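Title: Request for sanity check on GNAT family N-acetyltransferase prediction

Description:
We are preparing a figure and want to confirm that the structure record we downloaded matches what your pipeline produces today. Could someone re-run it with the sequence below and paste the raw C-alpha cells into this thread? We only need the C-alpha cell string, no images.
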Amino acid sequence: MTDITIRPLELADHAEWRRLWTAYLDFYNTVLPENIYQLAWKRLFTEGEFEPKGLIALVDGKAVGLTHYLYHRSGWSEANNCYLQDLFADPAARGKGVGAALIEAVKQEAAKLGVTNVYWMTHETNATARKLYDRVARRTGFIEYDLL
C-alpha cells in the first residue's frame, strides 16, 4: 500500500495545484482562461461557509492528486450538503488509492461540520473513475440536466 498524505492546500502548492488542475481540465477537454485560474485559486483561500475548499494528495512529498469541494444549503435538511466538485489523480498514481483517500478526506472534513451528504458527478464514459466510485459510494440513479 502506498503511503498517501492528504492535507489542505497551502499557498506554496500553487504550481503543483495548477499542474494537477490543468491535467484534470485536459481530461475533460476543457480550457479555462487565466482569470479563472486566478479566481479559483483565490477562492480556495477565501474564508466563508460556502467558499470552495481544496485538498492535495502527496506520495513521498510529490503532489499526485487534488480535490475541490464546497458546501451548500439544502431544502431537505438542516445540515449543508457537500459537493465534491473536482477529483484528480495523476495517471502515474492511479490504482494506488489516491482517489479513494481524497474522497475519504472530504467525507471526514464534512463530518466535522455534521454534513453527511457528500456527492459528486462524473461523465458516463469515465470508466476508470466509475470503478472506484462504485466501490466507495452508492449510485443514486439521478440524471443531470443543465441549462447552458
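Thanks, this matches our download. The beta strands are 4-8, 53-59, 62-72, 81-89, 118-119.
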